Amino acid sequence: MAFPGYTAPTDLIIDSGALFVGVTPVGMSPSRGGITFDPGMVVRTVPFDGETTGVAGLQRITEYTSKFSGKLLDCSTASLMRLNPGSTSSDSGSDHIVTPKDATVMFVDGDYLKMVTWKCRRMSGGTHIVTFPVAYVEKYKLASTDKSEGEYDVSIVAVLATGSTGTALNACPFTFNNQD
Question: Are the C-beta atoms of 152 and 145 separated by less than 8 Å?
């Protein structure tokens, strides 16, 4: 039985999608349980004396704390470098050593992840993409389980680029793209 006025969705996201990083995208890591995107949009309604309910036209977005999160499985040297902004690596025989950036040292442009994208298949056959042009790994933790793979519980935060492009400080730090 159909509900009056209801139209069934015509295009859904199928499966968990995958995270990629780089202008020439490479897979960031397989995930377990999929990826979560939180736009982190905070809306403020301007209060006024006598207000009993919100009034249209008095809302504005005051901030974005956009992030991807999920459980990633890859523990390669390249993956560890992405998880630790500004880290360095060195090889010593069969050892591949990743040294994280020292505390209190500010990030520089090369420390950030560029073009972090979450790509999902759509029911229509196209792709749904959320892109953070500039981001960093805010936090991660590794948990292992007997008779299973270890998982990095990761949170990746979008930030605005700086430099000569004249980035507006109130710009949204992500974009959506539906490719057919």
Answer: no
Burial label for 3, CB within 10 Å (0-12, 13-18, 19+), is exposed
Q: Which residues of 108-131 are buried (b: 16+ CB within 10 A; e: fewer)?
A: eeeebbeebbbbbbbeeeebbbbb
Q: Among positive and negative, which fits the CA dihedral 9, 10, 13, 14?
A: positive
What pTM, to 2 d.p., does this model score? 0.88
Q: Is 78 helix (H, G, I), strand (E, B) or coil?
A: helix
- Closest to 170 measured CA to CA, from 65, 68, 62: 62
pLDDT of 75 > 80? The answer is yes
- Tokens 């995107």 belong to 37
pLDDT at residue 164 in the model: 46
What angle (nearest 5°) sits at the alpha carbon of residue 121, between those of residues 70 and 123? 130
